[in-house]
Write a structure and sequence with these properties.
The protein is about 20% helix and about 30% strand. The protein is α/β, with parallel strands linked by helices. It has a seven-stranded mixed β-sheet. A six-stranded parallel β-sheet has the order 14-17-20-23-26-29, covered by helices on one side. Helix 4 (about 100-110) packs across helix 6 (about 205-215). The radius of gyration is 21 Å and the shape is elongated. The structure holds guanosine-5'-diphosphate-alpha-D-mannose and magnesium ion (MG). Magnesium ion binds next to loops. Magnesium ion (MG) binds near residues 120, 122, 230 and 232.
Length: about 325
């Protein structure tokens, strides 16, 4: 158990404050983003102006006063980051061994004595969690799961809904063609603490073992509009980057951009140096990175202190911290570290 911040125990219950707690599941190894996640945990991957996890924390409603981060993989790195980062109260709760999404929730359970929010630590979305909490209370079930419609649900949890939005079936990652609908688990939940009674000890999957068991206790679906991305793979992380960039437009902070550079918006760069190169659309360039003459970069993320050599091409790719794309080299649909 590790604490970060000043408060070592959660604030005492006071219904007049109507505050809530949130748990973010952030202990996965990010295997689908290797080799980048060999260097940093998925929650700390930069997404435009801040790490992925801060987008999630900042999207929580004001009524959430304490955020528990269920961590395992690279927890020291996360702990170090939160020590340096002001904001909401964030308490890291460590699992010695990964406990799965259900086990991780149970491990935080001793702090959860009232309705709480839980979310996967890799989701970028436009959901209004305050309105989801309201709907949860109206329905009065043990849990409410945010739902999103996709064309191929096989990589997700899939639900079938009754007319009053009750979840009648939950299938985790069904085979192609066997999914009961196109409505998927968006990885954002509101739960009553009673859900913890249905989670056994050790490694437990919320999706495979717990949801099917609690359907008769009232598990409801909450659909929303706008955008939703699971950033667990490169293409999706870059898609989330494109969505956030398109909301922010063109931003160059303290960057040196050659007058002959061709900059195609939207992009975001901080403390970068851009020679007469073509940059954009959909490019983020982090601190101290350098792009040389004649390079072409689109739909990509260049992490700090990276270098793109003369005439090099970078498309749909992530260039890790301190990595180098050599002169004339092409990097496409890859993660380079
Ligand atoms: N603390 C902790 N411990 N966290 C974990 C563990 C663990 O053992 N295993 C996974 N997590 C965290 C991950 O870090 C991630 O933030 C979240 O739980 C979900 O894990 P993923 O590995 O990203 O799952 P997924 O994307 O394949 O599937 C999940 O998300 C889909 C939506 O994106 C499931 O919840 C699906 O049902 C859902 O549709
Ligand atoms: Mg995921």
């Amino acid at each position: 158990m590790k604490f970060v911040g000043h408060v070592e125990t959660p604030a005492p219950d006071d219904n007049s404050l109507q505050t809530m707690k949130a748990v973010i599941l952030a202990g996965g190894m990010g295997t689908r983003l290797r080799p980048l996640t060999n260097l940093m945990p998925k929650p700390l991957i930069p997404l435009v102006d801040k790490p992925l996890i801060l987008h999630i924390i900042d999207s929580l409603p004001e009524s959430i006063d304490t955020v528990f981060l269920a961590v395992n993989y690279m927890k020291d790195v996360l702990e170090d980051y939160f020590k340096r980062t002001p904001g909401k109260e964030v308490i890291l709760v460590e699992e010695r061994e990964p406990l799965g999404t259900g086990g991780a929730l149970k491990n935080v359970g001793r702090y959860l004595d009232d309705t709480f929010v839980a979310c996967n630590g890799d989701i970028i979305s436009s959901i209004d969690i305050a309105s989801m909490i309201e709907e949860h209370h109206l329905k009065g079930g043990i849990g409410t799961i945010a739902l999103w419609r996709v064309s191929d649900p096989s990589a997700f949890g899939v639900v079938s809904l009754s007319e009053d939005k009750r979840i009648e079936l939950f299938q985790e990652k069904p085979k192609r063609g066997e999914a009961c609908s196109n409505l998927i688990n968006a990885g954002i939940y509101v739960f009553e603490p009673e859900i913890l009674d249905f989670i056994g000890d050790g490694f437990v999957s919320l999706e495979r073992e717990v949801f099917p068991k609690i359907l008769n206790r009232g598990l409801y679906g909450y659909s929303f509009d706008g955008y939703w991305v699971d950033c667990g793979v490169r293409e999706n992380l870059l898609e989330a980057q494109r969505i956030l960039l398109s909301q922010r437009g063109e931003i160059h902070l303290n960057s040196k951009v050659d007058v002959k550079a061709k900059i195609i918006p939207p992009n975001f760069m901080t403390n970068a140096e851009i020679g007469p190169a073509t940059v954009g659309p959909g490019v983020c360039i982090c601190d101290r990175s350098v792009v040389h003459n004649g390079a072409q970069i689109s739909n990509s993320l260049l992490m700090e202190n990276s270098v793109v050599g003369k005439g090099a091409v970078v498309r749909n790719s992530i260039i890790g911290p301190n990595a180098r794309v050599n002169d004339g080299e092409t990097v496409e649909n890859s993660i380079l570290v």
